[in-house]
Structures are given as structure tokens and as C-alpha cells.
Specification:
Layout (H helix, E strand, L loop, with lengths): L1 H10 L4 H33 L6 H26 L15 H10 L2 H35 L1 H7 L9 E2 L2 E2 L3 H36 L4 H52 L3 H28 L8 H10 L5 E5 L7 H22 L4 E8 L2 E8 L12 H10 L4 E5 L6 E8 L3
Parallel strand pairs: 3-4
Antiparallel strand pairs: 1-2, 4-5, 5-7, 6-7
């Protein structure tokens, strides 16, 4: 075992890992200088101009640039050091100029990247110092006998330390052995100094904490919900423009067949097939409406106003929508409103209802209130429980306030973007 360890130590200077670490230090040096200058300029200009309108936007842009520069450091470390770090989650998209600016300035990963750029240069200088001391002095000492014989890099007496001169052959060989030791230990010294860089990268450039993991999961879920909504929309169009059109054509052809035959039995069979085709068309239309209500083609506000106008109970709508939500959120909000208004008409005994939709802080608040008898409680098999399950898929919330005797107020809160 000791022979194996000794062999590994002796082979270290000539191994692939040692040369990769040397290459990492050499290549990362100009990148560290660039990053340090960039970070200092960003901090100085950003804080110095903070009293003007340009300071905070400049600082926000600087944080984004720091993220991009540190992504180069991550890729370099992954390629040469085998240090694979997952990039921090991107900051959420804010609404409006001030919203985006606030999100950028509050980006913790951006500030950590800027801090890394400031600290990277001093660490790189330490790495360079270790590299030069071990390899440069190692090669110099190892070749000292040859240099002494050729009169290269020598003064009149040669190397001397506190009056001790390395001029004789044994003493020259002693210097050479010292140089060999430096070369052998050089990769281990450099590897040891790179530990600080690895730790700092993991701490500042990697994905940290539960909060970023939750944000990543939220973004993944949002993409999945949007993809599912787009897929359902495609299915709805295919059914509407394909299968439904063919069934209507089939019904017309059956009508022509019924008018063309004289046999009463045959006419009865054709009429039965015709009635079955009409039922299939009606069921298909209901299915299409369940996938994507056509009213949403003109926006959620128009769809809700149309829904209120068609309600069996008079509904007073109040809709304030600043920006249009994503398709999945629109669909969920519409189906919630349709189900709640249907419950008002069927179960509440109300004579009037009120439907309101507001939007603030990136959230939608849909509220349906009626003057009915109350007593609505979510439970197994209840339509309200189904709505709760639907809104929870996008991190929404449904609150029911329905005391006996009424009134009933149901509030649905949804994100504007899934």
C-alpha cells in the first residue's frame, strides 16, 4: 500500500489532473482580472450614481453581467477541475420597469456572483504564487548543476545562503534534490490552494438553500402547466376543426340518404343514425367547451362578462384586469367562475349575485358573492372541493365564507402567471 501511495505522489506532477489544474490557474487569471475590474466599476458607478436615476438601473444591469461572467468560471471549473455546479435559478420576471428593477436588485445570486468576482483575483494571485514558487524554483533548482557547469545564472561563487556556498558537486546535487522535491510536491501544494476556490465557488456560485430549489420547482411547474394548456388548446382545435366538422358532414349525408330512399325501414335506420350523430356532435361540443371555452379567445374579462350576462341569477360584474394572465390561469379562473355561478343558480336560492375580478402584486382575486341562504361547505364530492384541487395545481387558494342564512362569499386567488 505504501508503495502505491508513493508511486501516486511521484506520478502526480506528470498526471492529467496536475496539468489541468495548472491550465485552470493560467486561463482563469485574465478572467479573474476582468471580473475584478468589472465588479469594482459596477459597485463604484452603481453606488456613486445612486442619487441619480441612472444608479440603480446600472447596478441592476451589473448584477446580470456578474451572473454571466461567473457562468464562465463555472464552466471552466467543470471542464478542468471536475467541479460541476448547478447554476442558480433565474430571478422571476417582474411586471413593469420598476418591477423588473426591483427583482434584479433583490437577486441574491447576482450579489453573490459580484462578491465572487471581487474575491477571485486575490485567490488567483495566491494560486499563481504557489505555482511559481513550486514549479519555477523547482525547475531552477533541479537544473542547478547544469547551470553551474555552463555558467548560467551564476555569480562568482554560485548559490549561497548565510555564507554557505553550494559550489561543490555534492552541494549542487543537494540543490537538485531540493528542486525535485519542489516539483513533486508542487501539484499537491497547488491542489491544496485550490480548495479555497472550490469552497468559494460552491458557496457563492452554486444553487443554495431550499428557497432557490422551491423557485426552480415553481418555474418547472409553471412550464408544465403552460405546456399542458397549449396541448389542450391544440386538441380543442383539432376536435373543433376536424372531428366536429366531419360529424356535421356525416349528418348532412345521412339526411340526403334518408330523403333518397323509399323504404320505411331503411329511412328509420337512417334517422336513428342521424340522431346518434347529432348526439355525438352535442357531446363533442360540450367536451370542446370543457377543454377551452371559446369565450376566452377574446380575453378573460370578456369571457367573465359574457358568463355573468348568461347566468340564470342576475349577476353584477366588476372586472379590473391590468395585464392578461397566461392561458392556463385564464382557463382555471373561467371554470371557477362558471362553477360558482352555477352553484348560485342551483343551490343558494339567491336573487342576486356579484362577480368581481381584481389584479395586484402579480395575483388574481376572483370573488363571487350572493344573497342566498348560505351553508356552502367544501367536502367530499362537492364542487367546491373540485375547485380547490384545480386552483392548488398552480399554487392558488380558495376561501369560502358561507354562514347559515348567508350571504356566501367565495374568493379564488391565483397567480397571474402559473
Amino acid at each position: 500500500m505504501s508503495r502505491v501511495k508513493l508511486g501516486a505522489v511521484l506520478r502526480a506532477p506528470f498526471g492529467r489532473r496536475a496539468w489541468a489544474e495548472i491550465l485552470y490557474v493560467v486561463v482563469s487569471t485574465p478572467l479573474a482580472v476582468l471580473g475584478f475590474v468589472y465588479a469594482i466599476v459596477t459597485l463604484v458607478l452603481g453606488t456613486g450614481l445612486a442619487v441619480t436615476a441612472a444608479g440603480f438601473p446600472l447596478l441592476a444591469a451589473g448584477l446580470g453581467g456578474a451572473r454571466r461572467i461567473t457562468s464562465l468560471h463555472r464552466r471552466l471549473a467543470a471542464r478542468l477541475l471536475g467541479e460541476h455546479l448547478e447554476a442558480p435559478a433565474r430571478p422571476r420576471a417582474g411586471s413593469g420597469l420598476l418591477g423588473r428593477l426591483q427583482v434584479r436588485l433583490g437577486d441574491a445570486a447576482g450579489w453573490r456572483a459580484l462578491c465572487y468576482l471581487v474575491l477571485k483575483l486575490p485567490m488567483t494571485l495566491i494560486h499563481l504564487y504557489v505555482l511559481l514558487v513550486t514549479w519555477e524554483w523547482g525547475v531552477f533548482a533541479l537544473t542547478y548543476p547544469a547551470q553551474h557547469a555552463l555558467g548560467i545564472n551564476q555569480n562568482s561563487v554560485g548559490i549561497h545562503i548565510n555564507g554557505f556556498v553550494f559550489d561543490s558537486r555534492p552541494r549542487q546535487l543537494l540543490v537538485s534534490v531540493f528542486g525535485l522535491a519542489l516539483i513533486v510536491l508542487g501539484p499537491w501544494a497547488l491542489r491544496l490552494s485550490l480548495i479555497t476556490d472550490r469552497i468559494l465557488m460552491r458557496w457563492l456560485l452554486g444553487r443554495r438553500g431550499l428557497a432557490e430549489r422551491v423557485r426552480d420547482l415553481e418555474e418547472t411547474r409553471a412550464r408544465a402547466v403552460d405546456d399542458a394548456a397549449a396541448t389542450l388548446r391544440t386538441i380543442e382545435r383539432d376536435l373543433h376543426d376536424g372531428a366536429q366538422v366531419r360529424l356535421i358532414a356525416l349528418t348532412m349525408q345521412l339526411t340526403m340518404v334518408r330523403d333518397a330512399v323509399a323504404d320505411d325501414n331503411a329511412r328509420a335506420l337512417v334517422a336513428t343514425a342521424q340522431a346518434t350523430a347529432r348526439e355525438a356532435i352535442a357531446e363533442l361540443r360540450e367536451l370542446v367547451r370543457g377543454i377551452h371555452p371559446p369565450a376566452l379567445d377574446h380575453g378573460l374579462d370578456t369571457a367573465l362578462a359574457t358568463l355573468a350576462a348568461r347566468s340564470a341569477v342576475p349577476v353584477e360584474p366588476s372586472i379590473e384586469l391590468a395585464t392578461r394572465p397566461t392561458a392556463a390561469i385564464e382557463s382555471i379562473a373561467y371554470f371557477c367562475a362558471a362553477e360558482l355561478l352555477a352553484n348560485v343558480a342551483k343551490h343558494s336560492g339567491a336573487t342576486r349575485a356579484w362577480l368581481s375580478l381584481t389584479q395586484s402584486d402579480g395575483r388574481l382575486r376572483l370573488r363571487v358573492r350572493d344573497d342566498g341562504s348560505g351553508g356552502a361547505v367544501p367536502g367530499p364530492g362537492s364542487g367546491l372541493s373540485g375547485l380547490q384541487d384545480r386552483v392548488r395545481t398552480v399554487d392558488g387558494r380558495l376561501d369560502v365564507a358561507s354562514p347559515p342564512g348567508g350571504p356566501t362569499v367565495v374568493t379564488v386567488e391565483l397567480p397571474s402567471h402559473a
